[in-house]
């Protein structure tokens, strides 16, 4: 994590903690939502971040939780962006034959099994719905 992001997380923690060494669930939810995370996802993040089951997070727990979540969000956005390069109609779908051609011939090609696994998740009516694949891969709804 870069130092700018670290400082941003520390500043958010300090602002909402009022000088205390921890944040409770309500305070955490407010902060997390300020970073663009949906309420339901914020609640799940808090449960995941509260590894001690204490009902609060200290600054280290908070920074760890936020850096994991935001790195995951960046990776998710990068994957959607890559798929969008093939979605010239801007329909959030790519014809299955075009996607298959690209994924077996460009960059690090997928083998037949890998391609079929992807299509099993996202193919409907000859179209690859790439957001379905991204959601399945990352295990949550996009914010």
UniProtKB/TrEMBL annotation:
Ranges for domain EF-hand? 37-72, 74-109
* A Gene Ontology molecular function term of the record: calcium ion binding
Pfam family example for this protein?
A: EF-hand_8
> Which keywords does this Swiss-Prot/TrEMBL entry list?
Repeat
Q: Which InterPro entries match?
A: CALM/Myosin/TropC-like, EF-hand-dom_pair, EF_hand_dom
Q: List, alphabetically, the GO terms of the cellular component aspect.
A: myosin II complex
Protein's name according to its UniProt entry: EF-hand domain-containing protein
Give the species this sequence originates from: Arcella intermedia
